[in-house]
């Protein structure tokens, strides 16, 4: 009868020892990361945003931070700390720092220096369904894809797409203003609407052919 008790005691002892070692290691890494970011303030949470546990559990301050928190709290999250740059720390599955930026100049600096700030490619593996692409790669592979599409996605073309998208949407708003009843507009399907918008923008920017929203038929 002593052996099961000893086995249980040994198991509990091992678990407590493992937990203690993990806690000590996490604390050491926590202090190391704080020094690395010069003690920049920010949200501290136990479970990282994309983990399974954080997905299943509700938002618990200091324990679980949901992945949509920037959309929920917006700039108020930064106002709490009185800064436009926060250093968030997570402890599980390993201690690491997440930098959150609300300053346009800093954001431009980060996105303009790909070598110093490479994007994490793991979340974009789903985009590799048809093979590697500019979204799911970094480094030399990214440059190879970038070279292939650089002429099509130039700053001049981006401005053209933006301008024509705005014009197309404004034309739709004008039609809605004319046809609305009781200040309401009925849209049969958002997917049909956005598909039509996409095709119209591609037509005018890629082929120089401007398509109307209404052509003797129903408005999609």
TrEMBL record:
**Carries keyword Metal-binding?**
yes
GO MF, any single term: heme binding
Instruction: Read off the PANTHER family from this record.
Output: CYTOCHROME P450 FAMILY MEMBER, CYTOCHROME P450-RELATED
Q: Where in the cell is it found?
A: Membrane
Q: Which GO terms describe its cellular component?
A: membrane
Q: What is this protein called?
A: Cytochrome P450
Source domain of life is Eukaryota
Organism equals Serendipita indica (strain DSM 11827)
């Amino acid at each position: 009868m002593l052996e099961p008790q000893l086995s249980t005691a040994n198991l509990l002892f091992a678990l407590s020892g493992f937990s203690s070692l993990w806690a000590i290691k996490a604390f050491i890494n926590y202090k190391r990361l704080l020094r690395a970011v010069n003690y920049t303030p920010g949200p501290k949470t136990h479970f990282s945003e994309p983990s399974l546990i954080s997905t299943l559990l509700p938002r618990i301050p200091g324990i679980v931070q949901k992945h949509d928190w920037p959309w929920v709290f917006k700039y108020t999250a930064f106002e709490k700390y009185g800064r436009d740059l926060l250093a968030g720390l997570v402890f599980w599955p390993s201690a690491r720092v997440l930098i959150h930026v609300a300053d346009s100049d800093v954001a431009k600096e980060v996105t303009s220096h790909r070598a110093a700030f490479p994007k994490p490619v793991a979340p974009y593996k789903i985009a590799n369904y048809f093979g590697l692409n500019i979204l799911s790669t970094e480094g030399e592979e990214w440059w190879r894809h970038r070279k292939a599409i650089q002429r099509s996605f130039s700053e001049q073309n981006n401005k053209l797409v933006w301008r024509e998208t705005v014009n197309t949407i404004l034309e739709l708003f004008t039609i809605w203003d004319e046809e609305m009843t009781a200040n309401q507009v009925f849209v049969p399907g958002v997917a049909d609407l956005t598909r039509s918008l996409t095709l119209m923008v591609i037509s005018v920017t890629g082929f120089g052919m401007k398509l109307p929203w209404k052509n003797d038929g129903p408005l999609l």
